[in-house]
Amino acid sequence: MRAVAYIVPTFWTRGSGKKLRSDRDAQVLAMYVMTAPGSNMIGLYYLPLTTIAHETGLTINEVREAFPRIAEIAKYDEDAEIVWVPESAKHQIGETMALKDKRRGAVLRELAMAGSHPFAREFLDRYRDPYQLEIGLKTGSSELPDQGPSIQSEAPSKGHPPEGMPRSLIPPFLSSSDQDTDQPDRSGSPAMPTFAERARVVLRDRITAELRWGRVEIWPEVSAICGTFVEVWGRPDAPRHGGDPRAQAILNRAQEGYTVEQLQAAIRGSKLAENIRERRDYQALTTILRDAAQVDKFSALAAAGYPAPGVMAVADPESARRRADAVLVRAEAQKVRERAQRGA
Q: Which of 176, 182, 233, 307 has its CA at a distance of 20 to 30 angstroms from the CA of residue 131?
């Protein structure tokens, strides 16, 4: 999450901002895309409609309809869920950027995340010369060359992938040239690894993983899980970065094989846990998803007694807990049978 975003005060008094005075939805959306928690210094970033709607209070349809009305301020690709604010880099970084500027690595990193998306090419067309981006990034590719300033200096092992990382998960700009000499062209977009696979990579090397797949806190799976928490407990409890304990709890359960739906069920089931209902400090993702036993317990409670998503009360919690105990016993017995079958 960004700590600071610079906004020009004249947004309200002239130009494209002034034109939105009679359009409140467009005003809110325009200000949001310039200051969103998931935004960055180049103004080119991943931003799902659901996130915008949740954080602005607009409906998804209102967001969708407002984007064309702020076309002078921002461009949005709904299929890729990517937004670009063309003037953002000028306001956040400046009109020009020197080769020795320490922000250069961050600019290249954010641009590399966009890969060959048309917005990335438009960014290069606009800022290549003033930011001297022809030194450090290949147009239309997410690859970074070996020479000159690059984000390799920020990655582990001086530009080499972490030991033991599967080749399919290695970002292209972290692959050494000698590894790629006998490989076919990899300019096409590889299939997205599963949530569990990405979680394992993040827990081992967060920088490498986020360079490839974006920041953990805005992954769709993480957003869905955090959205369920808001639905059940009526307040947000979302991670601010990939190293946040809340993100770590989600990732640890994901790498253990739990699906998004199972984690959502555990959060819903936590509403039936008496100790959590009575203590606000226990109403937290880190408590509910603390370990596999917690997830199994609360998932069983949900299966036994939680009526439906969005319902905040159960008529007979004690009866639900008894049914949940029975569900847990059956689940444990099933696991024992499966282990026995694999051993045979």
A: 176
d(CA 108, CA 92): 15
- 227 and 325 co-located in one domain: yes
- 290-322 tens-digit pLDDT: 988 889 888 888 877 644 444 444 445 566 556
Which run of H or of E encompasses 110?
Answer: helix 104-113
Residue that finishes a domain, picked among 131, 149, 178: 131
Please give the pLDDT value at position 175.
42
Boundary of a domain, candidates 90, 106, 131: 131
Take residue 170 and report the two structure tokens written for it: 């290695």
Token pair belonging to 158:
């001086």
Between the CA of residue 305 and those of 83, 138, 259, 295, 316, what are the distances in Å?
41, 56, 20, 15, 8
pLDDT tens readout for residues 68-97: 999 999 999 998 899 999 999 999 999 999
Residue 214 CB-half CA count within 13 A: 23
Residues 239, 242, 243, 245, Cα dihedral to 10°: 30
Q: What is the pLDDT of residues 170-228, one digit of tens each?
A: 444 344 433 343 444 444 555 788 999 999 988 888 777 777 788 898 899 999 999 99
pLDDT in tens, 90-127: 999 999 998 888 888 888 888 877 877 899 889 988 99
* Domains in the chain, number: 2
DSSP 115-179: TT-HHHHHHHHHHHHHHTTTTT--TT-S---SSSS-GGGGSGGGGSPPTT--GGGS-GGGS-HHH
Q: Is residue 195 part of a domain?
A: no
Predicted local confidence at residue 185, as pLDDT: 44
Q: Is the dihedral of CA 223, 227, 230, 235 positive or negative?
A: positive
On whether residue 76 sits in a domain, the answer given is: yes
